[in-house]
Amino acid sequence: MSGRELCWADGRLRAAWAARDWPTLIRRYRALAGISQSRFGELVGMDQGYVSRLERGLARVTSEDVVARFRDGLQVPIELGGVDRRGQHDWAPPAELRERMAHAHNTGRADLRTANWIGRVLAEHRRAEDEVGGLDLWPVVRSQLDTVTRLIPHAGGDAADRLLLLAAEHAHWMSWVSWKHDQPGAALMWLDLAHGWAVDGGHGDMASWAQRVRAKYALDRGDPVRALRTAEAARHSGMGPLSPAAAAVAAHQAAMAAAACAERDRARRLSDEAHELALRAPDEGERPGWLYWLDPTRALLQRADVAYACRAWSEAASVYRDALPALAGYPRDYDTYKRRLDDAQQRA
User: Fold this and answer.
1) What is the DSSP-derived secondary structure letter of residue 110?
2) Is position 199 within any domain?
3) Is residue 57 located within the same domain as residue 144?
């Protein structure tokens, strides 16, 4: 992979391109590539003085010819060529996505190098979302999904299945961002797409994950009975055995719902099962990409969350206290769990 491609795996850079935020784009690209303003100017056919004014926000880009210089000179990935900022707040999935997927079983050849690249940058977006913001990345991920779905009618067999999984991962991401921005209807529509595409592609882990997320949405809405029913469905996808990590998060979600239903013994059993399953996949490479975060520390914190939900305050506080030091490099998560620790200690 070339140096410029490595630069474009960065979420902040892609969000800056989507927003046409030229000062941020120039600064970020130069920092990632380790180049001067003069070298940047050579890439895009501009003199150093003009690059400097753009980077400081003292000049504006109004010409499509200049935009084309950036696109060509910086080798902007093909899936970002169709970014439409006007659609940034168009939450619901458009009908043409379903039309493309209706042809997913055609045979042919697809550009799997592009698909693999998009899979890589989606993984970067997952990690960057808290820092960059889902709204900033929304048009980028939406454009990526367009590219993936256009590849599917030209793929067959294993290649089509891989593309369906990639499309499902994108749809799940968009569901999650929609939910966090108080768009429940759109969130459920995207999640339906993710689940259907996962089933079509034979991906039991992703189908289970979509059901697990639906269970969380139900619990967030104050409907623990439906949450428990849906979480139990996630534990038994009907598509063969789940990987340990996928089974772990489904069991944990069922435990949280059971606790909310005041079925504390059931919640405890499910929590023990979830923790044991998570410890079977301690390394990131052993887990599905969207579960990159489920390391032993997060598995321990999930166990504490169930104890907290069961009102076992002393137990929850003890586990939170043991796990907190490992979150030192994640200030937002550290603050969240520190607040839970403080609350559990006060209630104990």
Assistant:
1) -
2) no
3) no
